[in-house]
């Protein structure tokens, strides 16, 4: 058998070592699918390997990566070593590649994959949490690997939560790869990319830069969240034992209740946790989200905190909205505030009655000063902020205030904190428009291409 020499862009080098979970994410043109297809062909050519190529939904074989793998076999000139069938590819050495949709599997029939060496999930942003839970324990052969390639969509997608929320897993490795990491990036795509960065930078950051999808025109905070990502303010910042944790709430009874957990030092803030609930009463919410306040909390709550690597919080103020005075929680007509205080949530700061405009403006001023810990729950809160948007009035053809949906509760709770936290936040310039210096308007351009070394493996 002849030895094959294959050029591999530098950005993919971390994925060349054995690891249980491997992931590559980024924008269009990064060659993620090409990399995994080549690695799969090389593996099946070099030794007997059983592999399954997976998508969440695969209605026909045309929706799979079958043709891409066939193209790679042809590129390497090893067609004589493979027998290409309609629904599978067989190697002369006993290798097998099949193509499946995860939605066709359940807890019983997925057992047919137990003896496979590799599972490659393409378009993994569409993989559901249920499918991921089914797949992981099924691919169980010694030294087996599960590969994921995807273009990021939402922070709360199962694959992003697995690879990019919380502390890195010791058995996982992930690479961010975009067009500027691809030495074979086509010129036609380069022109498309450059044009998109000029005409719609936010859209281009998602399509070409691998950023999360945004609803830019209607969204209140999408650009500010994108800036936080660009500034490195979404990461692993941890909990400071010397600072109290202050919480900010938006309370719903037949609706969502959202709570932010934030530490600040007077000039900046760090989000250390976020919770949201639907259909739970006050006691269940406090016992789940603030177990430190319960006298002798059950071991199950403390164990959950240890598993999540979250230290016991020392609390400061709890910011609650004006309607906390409404008698809707607890027996005997007790107000929400009294109900929470009876559960140990104190001191409580009840905000002044105000409209959404004040909360939105305060949040916009505060967000440039905020860091977010990249945990699964905090990233859910970040997703709520990113997608909090205006409501379109179709008859008027105009936006008419915030849209009330699953995102508005987390956004309102954050706005409650922004209004009341007393951080030193920048105010809009008071210099009249006509007195402001004028100059050239510079539109954001595409990211500079980084050189990619080609290494033979």
Structure description:
With 457 residues, the chain is α/β, with parallel strands linked by helices. It folds into two domains: 7-182, 3-Layer(aba) Sandwich (Rossmann fold), CATH 3.40.50.300; 234-420, Nucleotidyltransferase, domain 5 (2-Layer Sandwich), CATH 3.30.420.280. The protein contains 13 helices and 19 strands. The chain has helices at residues 32-46, 66-75, 129-138, 158-164, 187-199, 201-207, 222-230, 282-289, 299-307, 336-342, 356-366, 376-387, 408-420, and strands at 7-9, 21-25, 50-55, 82-84, 88-91, 96-101, 118-122, 145-150, 172-176, 234-235, 245-250, 256-264, 269-278, 315-320, 348-350, 370-373, 390-393, 398-402, 454-456. The strands form four sheets. Strands 4-5-6-3-7-8-2-9 form an eight-stranded mixed beta sheet, covered by helices on one side. α5 (187-199) runs antiparallel to α6 and α7 crosses α12 (376-387). The longest helix has 15 residues, at 32-46. The radius of gyration is 26 Å and the shape is elongated. The protein starts with 6 loop residues before the first strand and ends with a strand. The relative contact order is 0.13.
